[in-house]
Design a protein that fits this description.
CATH superfamily of the largest domain: Transferase(Phosphotransferase) domain 1
Number of helices: 6
CATH topology of the largest domain: Transferase(Phosphotransferase), domain 1
Mean pLDDT: 94
Low-confidence stretches: none
Radius of gyration: 18 Å
Shape: globular
CATH class of the largest domain: Mainly Alpha
Order of helices and strands: EEEHEEEHHEEHHH
Strand content: 15-25%
Bound molecules: adenosine-5'-triphosphate, magnesium ion
CATH architecture of the largest domain: Orthogonal Bundle
Oligomer: single chain
Strand order of the largest sheet: 1-2-3-5-4
Number of domains: 2
Structural class: alpha+beta
Length: 223
């Protein structure tokens, strides 16, 4: 149970999110709850793995200079992580949806795409994959600092990633963009352009991405 002074602000498929004050700081608590459709031991093990992956990768990203919320506390008994609440931020998903048509839209989209490409490129350069790259798992701080993109939701992340793992990570992002946003034809190519600049092994990853895409197409044809 999370301290009752914390306010429940959301619940996903795997976790409840609370907001409150911890040690004087605005804090987000992500609590993984029991899924009754899973065997109790397996559920416990999976939850622990995801908490470990999340805490570990947030720290590795920090070391690599990629913006993530600061981790304040990891509590394996209560299955939760206390982290910095990113105040004045919106998900990239909501940010894109809020852009109205006009000349500013293209420029803003290309700015966000570059930031996404550079964050993912740097993660991959450190052999880290996110595992769930969607526009809901990226926040944009609305202040006017230069690098405003913050990656979140690392429960499915993995270290020691291969080129194939990285290609799948990018493919997940490409599919997520297609299914969530309309009129974004130049967004993913723009992500890849800045990805290339941050990851010197990108040629192999992008070759694999073509393979992963064609496997994806075959799967769709078979149904
Ligand atoms: N540190 C944070 N600061 C502000 N808002 C956050 C923060 N972390 C998460 N959020 C908000 O809560 C939403 C859900 O968080 P998150 O993506 O971590 O959980 P989830 O998708 O339910 O988790 P999972 O996919 O691991 O089950 C985010 O899309 C974002 O809007
Ligand atoms: Mg999420």
């Amino acid at each position: 149970m999370v301290d009752p002074s914390f306010q429940l602000i959301g619940q996903g498929a795997e976790a409840r999110l609370y907001k409150g004050i911890y040690l004087g700081k605005l804090t987000l608590v992500k609590e993984r709850f029991r899924k009754t459709y899973r065997h109790e031991d397996l559920d416990e093990q999976l939850n622990k793995e995801r908490i470990k992956a999340e805490a570990r990768t947030i720290l590795k990203c920090k070391i690599a200079g990629i913006r993530t919320p600061a981790v304040y506390l990891v509590d394996m008994n209560r299955k939760c992580i206390f982290m910095e609440y990113m105040d004045d931020s919106v998900t990239v998903k909501d940010y894109i949806a809020s852009l109205t048509n006009g000349e500013e839209r293209e420029a803003r989209l290309s700015d966000v795409a570059k930031q996404v490409g550079s964050a993912v490129g740097r993660m991959h350069a450190h052999n880290l994959i996110h595992g769930d790259l969607t526009t809901s798992n990226m926040l944009l701080a609305t202040g006017d600092a230069e690098d405003r993109l913050v990656l979140i939701d690392f429960g499915l992340s993995v270290g020691q990633a291969t080129a194939e793992d990285k290609a799948v990570d990018l493919y997940v992002l490409e599919r997520a963009l297609l299914s969530t946003h309309a009129d974004m034809d130049s967004f993913f190519p723009c992500v890849l352009a800045s990805y290339r600049k941050c990851n010197k092994d990108s040629a192999e990853v992008l070759r694999k991405l073509d393979e992963v895409r064609s496997r994806g197409r075959k799967r769709t044809m078979i149904g």
